[in-house]
């Protein structure tokens, strides 16, 4: 299973589901920790740490950054710090298919590659030739604010599970090295698991559909419990004032209400 999945919690939620364990091949990964230089801007400090690792180690490198802006700025700083034998390849969802393919395929003979990626490269693909990983330990996530009805992007520290997942990208094809750009003590204090995305998403559209199809109160309560992770404290973001969502609840005419369903 994915390193970012809380297997124990999933089994608690689905107690009757069978569990199948398949041990995949993984090479050893040396995990290093190095705080960023405080006198430099984030982008420049990341580029400096990445260039230093490239000078001291062989192989292509995967660099995890929180967003497109950071990828572009670190790309600029790295361009003046690496040799002509190093290809710099951005990788994020908005790129063309051709540009994404360039980042994924092996580097030409005699060349090395640095792939600057968002967390799209954390779980969904394997990049050929990677044996070095630099982890900024940051990610950008969408957070829905039920008070304002708006979704905003927030940059935050990743969980320990995500750090483990990112480190694992260095050991897919050969023994590798992962450099986490924070102190080891900070990494150990990070959350063990990431919050489920459903807890921070705008689900008002789902709420409208639930009302429209005439789901029972017990069904809505069950759905709310799943979104809240089975915990009674707090409420999921789709338990909102329907009027603020710009709509109204309409009682559907079903057989129990004298309708035809």
UniProtKB/TrEMBL annotation:
In its UniProt record, a GO molecular function of this protein is: helicase activity
Query: Which Gene3D superfamilies does the record associate with it?
Result: P-loop containing nucleotide triphosphate hydrolases
Ranges for the Helicase C-terminal domain?
41-214
Q: Does the keyword ATP-binding apply?
A: yes
Q: Which residues cross the membrane?
A: none
Keyword field: ATP-binding, Helicase, Hydrolase, Nucleotide-binding
Q: Name one Pfam family in it.
A: Helicase_C
| Name this polypeptide is given | ATP-dependent helicase HrpB
Organism source for this protein? Answer: Salmonella enterica I
């Amino acid at each position: 299973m994915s390193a970012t999945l809380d297997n124990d919690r999933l089994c608690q939620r689905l107690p009757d589901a069978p569990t199948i364990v398949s041990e995949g091949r993984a090479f050893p990964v040396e995990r290093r920790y190095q705080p960023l230089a405080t006198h430099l801007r984030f982008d420049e400090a990341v580029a400096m740490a990445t260039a230093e690792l490239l000078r001291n180690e062989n192989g292509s490198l995967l660099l995890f950054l929180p967003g497109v802006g950071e990828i572009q700025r670190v790309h600029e700083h790295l361009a003046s710090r690496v040799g002509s034998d190093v290809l710099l390849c951005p990788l994020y969802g908005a790129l063309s298919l051709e540009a994404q393919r360039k980042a994924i395929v092996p580097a030409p003979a005699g060349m090395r590659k640095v792939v600057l990626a968002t967390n799209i490269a954390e779980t969904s693909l394997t990049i050929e030739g990677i044996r070095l990983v630099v982890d900024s330990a940051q990610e950008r996530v969408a957070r829905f604010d039920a008070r304002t009805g708006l979704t905003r992007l927030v940059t935050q520290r990743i969980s320990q599970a995500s750090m483990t997942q990112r480190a694992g990208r260095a050991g897919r094809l050969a023994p590798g090295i992962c450099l986490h750009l924070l102190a080891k003590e900070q990494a150990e204090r990070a959350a063990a698991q990431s919050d489920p995305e459903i807890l921070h998403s705008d689900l008002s559209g789902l709420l409208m559909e639930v009302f429209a199809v005439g789901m029972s109160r017990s069904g809505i309560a069950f759905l709310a419990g799943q979104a809240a992770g089975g915990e009674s404290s707090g409420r999921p973001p789709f338990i909102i004032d329907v009027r603020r969502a710009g709509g109204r609840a309409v009682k559907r005419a079903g057989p129990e209400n004298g309708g035809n369903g």
